[in-house]
Every structure is written in C-alpha cells, then in structure tokens.
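Worked example

This section walks through a single chain of length 188. The input is the sequence exactly as stored; nothing has been trimmed or padded.
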Amino acid sequence: MFSNGKKKPDSGIGDLGWMPFEAAAAKLKRSVARIRAQAKDGKLQRGVHFRRAESGGLELHVEAYLAWLAETSPPKRQKSLIERINESHAGTRPTTSAAELASINELRAKPAESRETPERRKPKLVPVSVWAEMMFGEYAPGRKTLLNWAHNGKILPVPVKMGRQYFCSPEARYIDPRAERISRMVNG
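Given that input, the structure is written out below as tokens.
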C-alpha cells in the first residue's frame, strides 16, 4: 500500500523498488527514451517515480511507475467494435423493397464484363507537371521551366495557382508569344 492509500498494482514481475532506468525499462519492456521523456515532461514526479542515484544516473521506482501507468491508462473496452456497432443500430436497419432486391439480383446474374461502366470523364484541371508528361512524354521539361512558363504566360489557357501548385486544362498548349508574333507578321 502506498502513502496515498492506494493499493500496489500486481505487476507480475516481483517486488521491485528503485532500479536504474535501463534495468527498469528492460524489466517493464518499455523504451528508456519514453520513460525519460515522461520524466522530462513532468508526468512523473521527482522523488516519487524517479530520483537521481548516487552514481549520477537516474533510478525509477518500478511499483510507483506501474501505479501511475494504471491510473493514467484508458480503460479497456469490454466489447468489440462489431458488437458496439450492432447494438447502436439494433432495430434501425433499413428494409429493402422487392423492386430493389430484383434489380440487385439482375446485376448479380450478369457477367462482370457485360455490366455497363460509365465513361471516365477527363479531369477539368491537372497539375502542370502531369500536363507536361501528357504533352511531351519522356521529354517533359523540368519543374523550374514549367513554373517559368506558367509565370510568363506561355501556357494557354493560363494555369491557375492553387496553394503551392499550378493547375491547367488537359487540353492546354505551349505558346511562345515571340514566335506567334513573327508568324503573324510573315503569314499575315
């Protein structure tokens, strides 16, 4: 029994008092770093849970530490997650109509390849790096070049900056304004 009136926990590792941190951690199968952090953070009390040894190291009072663990650890759940979910939904299960059951059975009867799959729509915006891979393949320019193009308006429609990244339309194209001007002058 401790001085505060609480009963000593049954640890199953014998009657242990003060031990060096390393030995106590090995006995308790806990990390020395974790116990040191708990002491440093003020979770453990000096003189009750740990103390400075005469040799200069730290010692842990194993029984007091186990009592502290028993007090601070959350209680174990008595029922499994599935049992708790079933209890919370008892009597509130939705019923399925006969028409819904018939359509479900029809889908199950069809082979997987004959089921209709909706067409995948193209995304409205993609990251500029993905656009460059789609447009140029393995010869896609680097990240800095793509940022330069986005800043200087060489990608049309103009990319949109969202957060830290630029996004553009999958149908966007690279345009060099100087080359465009020259071709207009030459071709009319």
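What to look for: Residues 126-187 form a domain with the Multidrug-efflux Transporter Regulator; Chain: A; Domain 2 fold (CATH 1.10.1660.20).
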